[in-house]
Amino acid sequence: MGSFQLEDFAAGWIGGAASIIVGHPLDTVKTRLQASTNYGSTLSCIRTVYRRESVFGFFKGMSFPLASIAVYNSVVFGVFSNMQRFLSQHHARESEASRSHTLSDLLLASMVAGVVSVSLGTPVDLIKIRLQMQTQPFQEGNLGLKPRAVALGVQPVYQGAVHCIATIVRTEGLAGMYRGVGAMLLRDVPGYCLYFIPYVFLNDWITPEACAGPSPWAVWLAGGLAGAISWGTATPMDVVKSRLQADGVYLNKYKGILDCISQSYRKEGLKVFFRGITVNTVRGFPMSAAMFLGYELSLQALRGDHTVTSP
Predict the structure, then answer these.
(1) pLDDT mean over 258-277
(2) Which keywords does the record carry (predicted)?
(3) What angle do CA 203, 205, 206 make, to 5 degrees?
């Protein structure tokens, strides 16, 4: 089965939807910890969000990523799986059934998936972060605001995802939808290498040689561990990306990646780049476990297989 396979895209969509539902509450906490200085710790952030906005505050901005990130994951998993399959067969000159995973094939396929993910994911992440951050008490967290921001008081800038997109395009142009794209590229290319490669090798290691494919339990464990590794190591650049994308609602603090890194380090020290690492790692496990399990089980159903098949 060396041909281009659409089932990978459909299975990626299902897995993506599952991961958003599982991971969005902690994603909201992660975003606020990274883009604001108002919270002392993860638990403090959780308590503050719950006290001010109730449980619904944790699901703020979820509708847009649920609709869009599912498609985004569909493309990422489809690109990775088809690219890895093509490279494996091209280099090994053997059938898919007997091919082995090589590090070089997985590395290149992961990098391609990472580049593709940035082109699709930057606008999605931007909208999500803007919607998650707009209820921040900016009077406490941001000084030297424009008169317009002061006049807004606690009124939300955006009324929803569509209004957020229209406002950004109107005030910042189409390029505004790709704010933070450089930081996202530096986060996602290595991030996907540390996402797919550990998953594949952990799956191979957990699954006995006598088995035709990994069990759902192996997929869940390998996927969760891969997600924790990927998100934990991506935290420093994720902090920079979150700050760049949250910037510009009321004022522009940063001129670019290096300026954001410089200002953040000067004001808050090295520890700022590890802000949210705990919630990132903890959130990475269930999100990725749901992502890979949803992907593998739906792929199994679509193909009519009786065993789970790794990407």
Answers:
(1) 92
(2) Membrane, Mitochondrion, Mitochondrion inner membrane, Repeat, Transmembrane, Transmembrane helix, Transport
(3) 65
